[in-house]
Amino acid sequence: MTPFDTLTGIAVPFGQENVDTDIIIPAKYLKSVTRTGLGMGAFDSIRQDPDNIFDTQRNAGAPILIAGDNFGCGSSREHAPWALADMGFRCVIAPSFADIFSGNAFKNGMLLVELPQEQVDRLMEVAKTDEITIDLENQVVTTPFQDRFEFDIDPFRKHCLMNGLDEIGLTEQLAGDIDAFEQRRSADMPFLDPVT
Amino acid sequence: MATKPRTLYEKIWDAHTVSRRDDGTCLIYIDRHLIHEVTTPQAFEGLRLAGRPVRRPDLTLAVPDHNVPTEGRGDPIEDPASAKQVALLKENCTAFGIEHIEMTSRDQGIVHIIGPEQGFTLPGLTIVCGDSHTATHGAFGSLAFGIGTSEVEHVLATQTLLLKPSRTMAVTVEGELGFGVSAKDITLAIIGKTGAGGGTGHVIEYRGSAIRALSMEGRMTLCNMAIEGGARAGLVAPDETTFTYVKGRDRAPKGEEFDRAVAYWRTLPTDEGAAFDREVFLDAADIAPQVSWGTSPEDVLPITGSVPDPSSFAEESKRAAAAKSLDYMGLTPGTPLSEIPVENVFIGSCTNARIEDLRAAAAVAKGRRAPQGVRVMVVPGSGRVKAEAESEGLDRIFTDAGFEWRDPGCSACLAMNPDKVPPGERCASTSNRNFVGRQGPGARTHLMSPAMAAAAAVTGRITDVRELMR
Ligand code: SF4
In which residues is [4Fe-4S] cluster bound (chain B) (predicted)? Predict the structure, then answer.
């Protein structure tokens, strides 16, 4: 995965609350067989309106999304972060995120930043005209107007995001342990290996 | 000095811990990985993008089941999206060296039915699949649970998962089941008692004399629905019933290896004095045949009950949910459950499509006939179940009763294939989820046992099977 360090870019001031995964990507796209290409189905119902916030010339392909409280609630579909990533988003800022969505987003290298509602409101204001900067190393969101909002992140998640490590990459660092475990098991309990 | 008494779950966990991080997260080794066409395409895509191989193709087994049509098995699949997923599974398995069971093979079936029947599922293992009903395999005393697509990719690449241990919950059912009451009724009654979220964060171990008395088929039905009670997995300790079932299965250990395996499996049951984080008790004699009335599996009542009045619930959130459910289900409070007419019956799914389930349904259907206007689908869980049922003449009993005898697959359990319940119509179903739209948009599902579903099929309404069989 691409390491996440500092990101400066256009932020889409979306702001809607309780956006569920059905709004992010409707069920009819679940028969897809790739992670890519889902962007065209993202926010389907909202984007029926040709004047929607996502498809303006300024916002299309923007790397940052600013959302409302409880973003990503509903089903556990991993298609939600895939669809957001396919639209170009690398970071979502909101007052809070649903649990499963949060895990899925992280697994796909997407940074979720939780900030209090007033700070999110302020960023929504700035985002209309100016770019926003997210500095993961220093855990701070800044604007060209001296705004400086610090955020919390799980140290393990931060480490993975900053080093572009996906969980598989991390586990692969333990390959020696896995090899040893397999050898021990096959020696002690060969009967647990499948008969083919 | 004696070691601290451990539960079955803790023994399996300890035996599979490759390494442990400071925050308590463990790298857990996975013994068996079942895969199907719906939750794997993006996992294989991820492997390709990163240039990673599958670490242990020999511990992985693939079968298409969710999308497959249940008639015209030899024909191409009509729906292009389904056809593509099924074809892609085979392509990916070929590319990564994984054994793949063809849709047309006699061994094909629902992933949670074929694992046990082929001896791929054994006691004491860790078993995963990109499907929440993987809990089924816990019937063997294996730690089995569903995972997401990123985790499928993680297992394919490393044969491990990063996990935090769950809390443990003992559900004890003592005593003897009454006439006409089955494992499905036990599992529904438990969810009715603990709630759809009651098991959240826990792994359940089912214990007690009523559980010990169940066949392996019954134990699989029981564990299958652990997830519907919110638990990650359900377990039954392995015993003689388990060993007898496993012995001689194609992929199970043979001869001396089998004896060594049994010796190990005998060490697994929970030690005397081991503590569970939570305990629940049920008396088997109190359990009547169960029927769901709402849109969550916790919305269940004995067949002798009536549709509840939403105002009868203590909590405001439950009152609102019940009112919404009844509106969707088109039911009026106070209606006796046994007076609800059904237009559809589905006998199938990984909960209840094993040979015993079909025998139970056939015993009720024998010599009876579905009334006009009632459509009954019987969908065996696998090609092997189908062949066995046919050798016993069950298919004739069903077709004589006006039921459809179909090819194996998930079918109307989630309606990803053409088998759907029409909008607004009611279905007596042996599956596991009565969620809104689960069996098709607008479909109204009533969960029950195979015998109860067959009783509904031959009367055209939800019926107490005990009255028919008296
Ligand atoms: S039968 Fe139903 S619950 Fe079981 S695996 Fe298939 S879709 Fe899932």
Answer: 350, 410, 413
Confidence of residue B1 (pLDDT cuts 50, 70, 90): very low
Among the ranges A166-170, B12-16, B19-23, which has the highest mean pLDDT value? B12-16
> Residue B41: which of A34, A170, A178 has the nearest Cβ?
A34
Are A195 and B252 an interchain contact pair (Cβ–Cβ within 8 Å)?
yes
Tell me how close the Cα of A137 comes to any Cα of chain B, in angstroms. Answer: 22
Residue A132 lies in a domain: yes
Inform me whether the pLDDT recorded for B410 exceeds 70: yes
Domain containing A173: what range? 166-196
B156 and B71 housed in the same domain: yes
CB A108 to CB B150 under 8 A? yes
Asked whether the CA dihedral B323, B462, B286, B356 is positive or negative, the reply is: negative
Q: Does residue A1 form part of some domain?
A: no
Of B362, B303, B279, B359, give the one whose Cα is nearest residue B178: B303
Same domain, A91 and A182: no
How many Å lie between the centroid of ligand 1 and the Cα of residue A181? 33
Residue-wise DSSP of B321-389:
HHHHHHHHHT--TT-BGGG-B-SEEEE-TTTS-SHHHHHHHHHHHTT--PPTT-EEEE--SBHHHHHHH
Whether B444 is in the pocket of ligand 1, judged by its Cβ within 6 Å, is no
Across-strand partners of B161? B28
**Is residue B431 domain-shared with residue B313, that is, in the same domain?**
yes
Name which of B21, B149, B251 to mutate to probe chain A: the one with the most chain A Cβ atoms within 10 A of its Cβ: B149
CA A128, CA A135: separation in Å to the nearest integer?
20
B326-375 pLDDT per residue, tens: 999 999 999 999 999 999 999 999 999 999 999 999 999 999 999 999 99
Do residues A106 and A32 share a domain?
A: yes
In this structure, are residues B113 and B349 in contact, taking their beta carbons and an 8 Å threshold?
no
- Residues of B (404-423) whose Cβ lies below 8 Å from A: 416
- Looking at residue B298, which CATH number applies to its domain? 3.30.499.10
Domain-embedded: residue B375 = yes
Extract the tokens encoding B449.
């046992």
d(CA A96, CA A69): 5
A181 domain-assigned: yes
A window 12-31, beta carbon within 8 A of B:
31
Is residue A104 within 8 angstroms of chain B, CB to CB?
yes
Q: How far is CA B277 from CA B35, B143, B171, in A?
A: 32, 17, 11
pTM of the complete model:
0.91
Phi, psi at B85, each rounded to 5°: -60, -45
B257 in a domain, yes or no?
no
- Residue whose CA is closest, atom 8 of ligand 1? B133
**Count of structural domains within chain A:** 2
pLDDT in tens, B90-102: 999 999 999 999 9
- B34, B65, B225, B419: which to mutate for ligand 1, most atoms within 8 A of CB? B65
Which among A23, A192, A91, A167 has a CA at the least distance from the CA of B12?
A: A192
**Do B311 and B362 reside in the same domain of the chain?**
yes
Q: A92-136 pLDDT, tens per residue?
A: 999 999 877 898 899 889 999 999 999 999 999 999 999 999 999
d(CA B84, CA B101): 16
Nearest to B157 among A76, A108, A168 (CB): A168
Instruction: Determine, yes or no, domain membership for B247.
Output: no
Dig out the tokens for B81 from the structure. 């999206």
Domain span at residue B26?
8-163
Q: At B67, list the tokens.
A: 């999308």
